[in-house]
Write a structure and sequence with these properties.
alpha/beta; globular; six-stranded parallel β-sheet; single chain
Length: 329
C-alpha cells in the first residue's frame, strides 16, 4: 500500500488503527540513521502502524543556529520512509503544531536540561520536550523510537514520560555510523571534504576512550580471577607471560581510575585534531551518568556515556558511545 502523507492531526486521527502504533520523530532530511529507526519501528509494530513525523521545530533553535538553512527535503523523506517500512508520514505546518503561535506553557527540562548540550544551547531541551510532548499527544503512539546519537535527548524524553505519566514506551536505537566511523547526521552534508576529515576525530576519540576502557576492564577481570601475588607474577614470567603478570599486578595495585583514563585517551585524539587544518574546536568532552548526565566519579561502576561535541568550520556535531564500568569485587 502506498504511504500516506498527512499534514493535519485530524487526518492522522481518522486513520483506522489496528495493533500497535510506533512513531519515529524527525526533523526531516532523512538518512540511513532514520531508516534504521523506521525499520526497527516496523519490527516492533508488527501488523500495526508506523508513523514518521517530519517537523522542523523552531523552539529547538537558538539565536544564530541553523533553523533557516536546515534542509527541507520532504519528497525524498517520504520515499525513504516508505522504503524503510513506514505506513504514514505526518508533516504538519508550524501553525498546525502551534496554532496560537509559540506556546506560552512549555515543558521544562529541569537540571539535566542545563548540562552539556543544554549549557551550550540554552532553552534547546525545553523546546525539544515541548514539541515531543505535543507530537506524542497528536500521534498517540504505543511506542516512540529515538536515536542514541542524541543520548541526552533520549534520557530527557524518558524522564519526561516517567515524571509526567505519558502512556508510551520509549525505545533508544543505537547510533548508525558511516563506513569511516562518522555518526550519521543531517548536518554532515554541510562539511567540506577537508572538514569531514577533521570531523572524524569525534568518533575516533570515542573509540580511543572505548578501547582504553575495554583494556582496563579486561585487566581488572584478570586481576579479580587470580590474586596478583609475587608468586603468581613469578609463575607467569616462567611461562613467558611476564607482560600479563605485570599488568595483573599493576591493575590490582592501582586505584580505581577507569573514567579518568578513558577521558584522557579521548582527549589526546581531540587535542591532535585541534591542530589540524581546518581545526576541530571542542565544545565539551564528558563521561556522564546516563540517568542525569552528571560527570561520573573515578570510582564509578555501572553504565556511563562518553559524549563529545565540537565545531568544524561552521558545523556543530555531537557523538557519544555507551560504556559499562564493572564493579571491582
Amino acid at each position: 500500500m502506498t504511504i500516506a502523507l498527512l499534514s493535519t492531526a485530524d487526518e492522522l486521527h481518522a486513520r483506522v488503527r489496528g495493533g500497535r502504533r510506533a512513531v519515529v520523530m524527525t526533523m526531516g532530511a532523512l538518512h540511513e540513521g532514520h531508516a534504521t529507526l523506521i525499520r526497527t519501528a516496523r519490527k516492533i509494530a508488527g501488523d500495526g502502524e508506523v508513523v514518521v513525523t517530519v517537523f522542523v521545530n523552531p523552539l529547538q533553535f537558538g539565536a544564530g543556529e541553523d533553523l533557516d538553512r536546515y534542509p527541507r527535503t520532504l519528497d525524498a523523506d517520504v520515499k525513504i520512509a516508505e522504503q524503510a517500512g513506514a505506513d504514514a508520514v505526518f508533516a504538519p505546518a508550524v501553525d498546525e503544531v502551534y496554532p496560537g503561535g509559540e506556546p506560552q506553557v512549555r515543558v521544562s527540562a529541569g537540571p539535566m536540561g542545563e548540562r552539556l548540550e543544554g549549557a551550550t544551547r540554552p532553552g534547546h531541551f525545553d523546546g525539544m520536550l515541548t514539541v515531543v510532548a505535543k507530537l506524542l499527544h497528536l500521534t498517540r503512539p504505543d511506542v516512540a523510537l529515538f536515536g542514541q546519537k542524541d543520548a541526552q535527548q533520549v534520557a530527557l524524553v524518558r524522564r519526561m514520560v516517567r515524571d509526567l505519566n505519558f502512556g508510551v514506551e520509549i525505545v533508544g536505537v543505537p547510533t548508525v555510523r558511516e563506513a569511516d566511523g562518522l555518526a550519521l547526521s543531517s548536518r554532515n552534508r554541510y562539511l567540506s571534504a577537508a572538514e569531514r576529515r577533521t570531523a572524524l576525530a569525534l568518533s575516533q576519540a570515542l573509540f580511543a576512550g572505548s578501547d582504553r576502557h575495554a583494556a582496563q576492564e579486561a585487566l581488572r577481570a584478570r586481576a579479580r580471577e587470580v590474586p596478583a601475588t609475587h608468586a603468581r607474577a613469578e609463575a607467569l614470567s616462567a611461562i613467558g607471560e611476564s607482560r600479563a603478570a605485570a599488568d595483573t599486578h599493576a591493575v590490582a595495585k592501582a586505584d580505581p581510575g577507569g573514567p579518568a583514563a578513558v577521558r584522557a585517551a579521548a582527549r589526546l585524539v581531540l587535542d591532535d585534531a585541534a591542530r589540524l587544518g581546518p581545526p576541530l574546536v571542542l565544545d565539551y568532552l564528558a563521561l556522564v551518568d546516563p540517568s542525569d548526565f552528571t560527570e561520573v566519579p573515578d570510582d564509578h561502576t555501572g553504565e556511563a556515556v562518553l559524549a563529545v561535541a565540537a565545531r568544524v568550520g561552521t558545523t556543530r556535531l555531537i557523538d557519544n558511545i555507551p560504556l559499562t564500568f564493572g564493579a571491582a569485587s
